[in-house]
Amino acid sequence: MAGASVPVLVALGLLGLVGGVGITAVGPGGVLPTIGLFALTGLTPAQVAGTALVTHVATGMLATAAYTRSGQLREPGTRRTALVLAVSAVAGTPLGVLVNSYVSKRMFGLVLGVFVAGVAGLVWFREHRRPAGSRAHPPTAVVAGMGCAVAVAAGVVGIGGPMLTVPLLVALGVPVLESLASAQAQSVVIAGVGTVGYLAQGAVDWPLAVLVGVPELAGVLLGWRIAHALPTRHLKYALITTLLALAPYLALHG
User: Fold this and answer.
1) Are 187 and 60 in contact (CB under 8 A)?
2) Which alpha helices (H) appear in the chain, and where do they start and end?
3) Which residues cross the membrane (predicted)?
């Protein structure tokens, strides 16, 4: 962080803020700080993932508290889905951290670019496949398998669970707010377990984690209010456009 210019530091703080809004308003969004840490700093892939995951410990806890307060996590079906996702994350995240140690910077950029493009597609799919009515939560086995796969991916590139889990749950028929609530609880486990793994490698840049994480916390609260008060269609399309524009850059930047 010592060698970073003021514009870079400001850009990282803004990406943290916007990423926090995206986490609780639409699900994907936590990837933006990861993108910033990868593209704007000289951190290694392990440091990018470790530093990004540290910020998601606090954002996940705050978002979980917010969705508990608004009632979504008090609903039995949502609570069950959140619990299954959290338990599966305990198994999947360490594997992702292990895989990261074998990933070069070039490969990391390529993998991150593919994830970003894939998430943009999932968000678009979610927007164009609105469920007509109330839908049941998917079976436990399906949620567990999905949660484990998401946790592995999150551990590799340093993203929170909502980035992938929310679009996937909605695609399976879970209402948006319930999907957002379930994914926040999963994010706490992914971030906590992943942080322990990367701390063991000495791969966390604490000053950058604070620089990104504090604005991200403010964004989480703002995004939660947006999710409950305003239509988020324009925000979703802005996110899709941004992710699709960034995907090829990330793949080539590595």
Assistant:
1) yes
2) 6-25, 31-40, 45-69, 76-100, 105-128, 140-157, 162-171, 176-200, 206-229, 233-253
3) 48-68, 80-101, 107-125, 146-170, 206-227, 234-252
User: What pLDDT is attached to residue 230?
Assistant: 63
CA distances from 242 to 41, 70, 124 (A): 20, 29, 12
Written as six digits, the tokens of 57 are: 């410990």
Q: Please state, as a whole number, how many other Cβ atoms lie within 10 Å of the Cβ of residue 158.
A: 35
Q: How far apart are CA 64 and CA 207, in angstroms?
A: 25
Using CA atoms, how far apart are residues 125 and 168, in angstroms rounded to an integer? 10
Q: Answer whether 202's CB lies under 8 Å from 57's CB.
A: no
Q: Which residue has the tokens 């594997």?
A: 95
Q: Degrees (nearest 5) of the Cα angle 25, 116, 44?
A: 110
If phi > 0 it is left, if psi is from -120 to 50 it is alpha, else beta; for residue 216 that is alpha
Which portions of the chain are predicted below pLDDT 70?
A: 1-4, 126-127, 129-136, 230-236, 238-239, 253-254
**What does the pLDDT read at residue 147?**
93
Angstrom distance (rounded) from CA 186 to CA 69: 17
